[in-house]
Amino acid sequence: MSTMVGVNYKSQLREELLANTGSLDILEVTTEKLFIQNDDPVLEILMSRLPVSLHGLDLSLGSSNEMPETYCANLAHTLSATSHEWFSDHLSLTAEDGVEVGHLMPMQLSNEDLERTVAKIRAVQAFSDRPFLVENITSYYPIPGSSIPEADFLRMLCEATGCGLLLDVNNLYINASNHHFDPMTYLEQLPLDRIIEVHLAGGSRKFGMMVDTHATDVWREVWELFDQVCRHIRPAAVIIERDSNFGLFSDTLAELDIARGILARHGLRKPLALTVAAA
């Protein structure tokens, strides 16, 4: 099938999503939302009609602790009970020693962290026969103790575990702008055939830097970077993320059309095969 284009599910938009199901190729659902009993009938309907990408927030690959047993049990049950194309989480830390950080925090990238992260990925891969993807996040300051560039770290994770990648183009643009590097040079360091999903989103300019917010339309510069990226990758899906400050849903539909237009220009609305399998 062609590269799928869709959005992340937000309950505030349930009626709009239900009314426009035909305009979506895929739906991204927060994994942890399904840990508790689903009392959202609209989400159930949408998940029965559309392919689903499960996207986690709290795996905390960067924690030095073992993954909590309760979280692992919930994740394993959700993956077993939910039809999904793949599941993903972030290259980040969200808790340490039982203390919740409250957001996606960049993790230290060292050989020790690589070994620990590889072990965690292999553990969660055993919960599903579908691919597991790791997403790049934004960082606003250097992380002490890091000795491996992020792109190299992601490449080594792929080599060691067979995992795939979720490339967040907005995060890449923000990091490149804030830390003054060439985003395409970063991209060249990744195993491009492992990029299965792409995220597009908007951000804000504040505190003298660019910040990832998912609260605005996709920036023009992010569309331009996405256009460049599409010359080199063949993703199975593109998701436009919006978490707050919702405008007219017609604007979201227009963004989906922009994404489809860019994909078509690069021949990515033709049949594609999902090639990354869980190790």
From TrEMBL:
Protein name in the entry: Uncharacterized protein
Gene3D superfamilies registered for this protein in UniProt: Divalent-metal-dependent TIM barrel enzymes
One Pfam family it belongs to: MbnB_TglH_ChrH
Family annotation (InterPro entries): MbnB/TglH/ChrH, Xyl_isomerase-like_sf
Entry superkingdom: Bacteria
